[in-house]
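Figure-free illustration: sequence to structure, shown twice.
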Amino acid sequence: MKFKEIKAMDREQLNEKMAEVKKDLIKSNAQVATGTVPKSPGQIRQMKKTVAKIMTAMNQKMRDKKE
């Protein structure tokens, strides 16, 4: 997911997307922990990056509200 798309979302959408991505990340990490090979190993890295992008956008929106 591109940062432009994430930046355009409002706070509720960001929270929903964050919950969705974290849920998928937990499932993928559980697969790795049990020893099974995930469908796409690069997908875990991509999900982590998406979580970071969402958190960055949320923090920027929080800072903008304070000012």
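We now fold a second protein in the same way, so the two outputs can be compared directly.
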Amino acid sequence: MGSFLDSRLRKTVQPPDGIIKGSGIREGMTVMDLGCGPGTYTIDVARSVGKDGKVYAIDIQKKMIEKLEKKLERKENNDIVNVVPKVAGAYDLPFPDDSLDLVYMISVLEEIPDKDRALREVHRVLKKNGILSISEFLLDPDYPLKRTVRRRCERAGFFFEKSEGRFFNYTVRFQKR
């Protein structure tokens, strides 16, 4: 899966503009890319939230954060000043309660051993009416069914908002109330 994380194929089947639109990411938001990996979507999201927004790129693997930091140093990304990469796990996110507008995960939830605990932690850091967006890809060996993701998120206190997608992928969006 490692080489797939930053591949052209991934961006073809899970295009950044589709992820951004499906997640509800807008200018000025404070967003967390949970399980950001090498930052495949982070930079596109940073451009979408604009200079008044912020993207916290979180991954448990230091190696992935280092790859993202190298991307941010590239000349073509010198306009990106609103990304804060951090090494952290999903069970103890380094944010105060009710501090983020949106959290998105792309092919990440099934990688987390205690999904319920991680979702409760995401619920804690989201503001009231904050959005949790989960996108999955059919060819991921850990691909969860939409109804499984929905059940887990509702159990963690989220309210289902909408679902969209094609045969190969989907995005499910929830809201904290």
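Summary for the second example: The first strand starts at residue 30 and ends at 34.
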